[in-house]
Design a protein that fits this description.
This protein is of the alpha+beta class. The chain has nine helices and eight strands. A hairpin with a 2-residue loop joins strand 3 and strand 4.
Length: about 300
């Protein structure tokens, strides 16, 4: 199913994308305010502020933990619980007995449906065939200005990094995250190439030309380019994801030698993903768009 953001990007409707960014952030705050107001209005008489309130709030948290057992976004649900509780409770309640100071549900083995990433095997279909399958699976409806040219450029950039003869391991595969990463006027395909023990992260930015058609802007393979792309001093990405922890784990594996600043960036990504209502599809919410959209290290064709 197409998201409003995907449709806006393909139509080059950047004003609509900016509105979607603000709406995502405001949506969470509105849901927190509405929930806190309803609890204060409907349940104060149940003893939330009377003698025994401590025991009651502890039971509320225990009941909530039970609801997280099959939840696909427990970190988001825990943060929503904290946000509502902090609006109602006195700061003396801000400990793990009443709010989620420590996570109560593990996110290690959560299954996503559809899967978080797709795997492609160039040994079976060739690198060109695998790249075509990647674009087809992303279901990008907007026409490319010249997809054959873009495909040749991506293959040429790949050959520069992996000159012939390229020794393909039996386990050679390309893993691509199932959702595009949106930031400002650019969408990014993010994934990793696994060839035996060699794991190489990559990102492919998609832009519009002057006529509104899509073009592949570059193939980012170098660690310095990717570090700049995911730098903490840049605007956050917007990503639709069912299991945020799976995306965070995948992204952390892309830059194993990340600097302290990059670690801060991923921490921000994780905490932002936690700012989601359990009623919505989780998103790594971003700051309002800035003028810059592509890392200076990217190689335009």
């Amino acid at each position: 199913m197409r998201t409003r953001r995907e449709a806006a990007l393909e139509a080059a409707n950047f004003r609509a994308i900016a509105h979607l960014v603000r709406d995502r952030i405001d949506f969470y705050d509105r849901r927190v305010g509405e929930t806190a107001e309803r609890i204060e209005r409907e349940f104060v008489s149940a003893g939330l502020t009377n003698v025994g309130a401590d025991a009651l709030w502890a039971r509320v948290k225990l009941h909530y933990i039970g609801m997280l057992i099959e939840h696909r976004q427990p970190e988001c649900a825990e943060t929503f619980f904290n946000s509502v509780s902090c609006k109602i409770l006195h700061r003396t309640y801000f400990n793990n007995g009443f709010i989620f100071v420590r996570p109560a549900a593990s996110t290690e083995y959560l299954d996503a449906d559809p899967p978080t990433y797709r795997s492609y095997y160039p040994r079976e279909s060739g690198v060109r065939g695998a790249l075509i399958d990647i674009v087809l699976d992303l279901r990008i409806e907007q026409r490319f200005a010249d997809f054959r040219r873009d495909l040749r450029n991506v293959l040429a950039a790949f050959r520069r990094r992996y000159p012939r003869p390229f020794e393909a391991a039996t386990s050679l595969q390309i893993q691509v995250l199932g959702s595009l990463f949106f930031r400002n006027r650019t969408a990014y395909i993010v994934g990793r190439l696994i060839n035996g023990l060699d794991v190489r992260a990559f990102a492919v930015p998609l832009k519009h030309d002057a006529e509104g058609r899509l073009v592949v802007d570059a193939l980012l393979l170098e660690p310095t380019e990717l570090a700049l792309l995911f730098s903490a001093n840049r605007a956050y990405f917007l990503v639709d994801m069912e299991v945020p922890s799976a995306y965070v784990k995948f992204l952390n594996s892309l830059l194993p030698d990340k600097t302290a600043a990059s670690s801060t960036r991923w921490s921000a990504c994780r905490s932002t993903a936690r700012r989601c209502s359990s009623a919505t599809s989780c998103t790594t919410c971003g700051t309002p768009p800035t003028a810059s959209s592509s890392p200076r290290g990217s190689r335009a064709w």
